[in-house]
Description:
Elements: H1 2-15, H2 33-43, E1 48-52, H3 59-62, H4 72-81, E2 88-92, H5 103-112, E3 117-119, H6 123-126
Parallel strand pairs: 1-2, 2-3
Amino acid sequence: MYGFQNYYSWQAAKAAPDRFAPAFSVDPFASEAEKIVKRHVEDLGFRALKLEVSQAGGLMGYHLPFDLAEDDRLGKIWDYLSSYPGFAVAVDYGDSSQVSHQPRSLARLAKRYPDLDFVLPKAWQVGLAGKRTGSFCSFAEYQL
């Protein structure tokens, strides 16, 4: 599934680079995950990664639970991407009822990789432990 979506995003950005900034997705548990990431970054020019981690419809829906900040497979990807300052990483980890909801892990990642720009899609929708500032949810209480 990811391959088709990644290709579609790349085509749209190639057709209108002034209008689209595509993100690619990868399953970090895939045997060729690192190779896939490098291809999208080095060969295709992507500067954003989108991970759908939620238990409801993402990686934790079909993999055993894992820690976003401590999993070695993801660690290799974070290390690689951090060599591209300003690289955007969007992580949709679901709501607080799901095991995938890991704001503390994301805070650790943000601290560990200051050159990566972490984005929380739909954070305004689900909230971070109920802390809202207008339509933006603060990471502040999770800084370690």
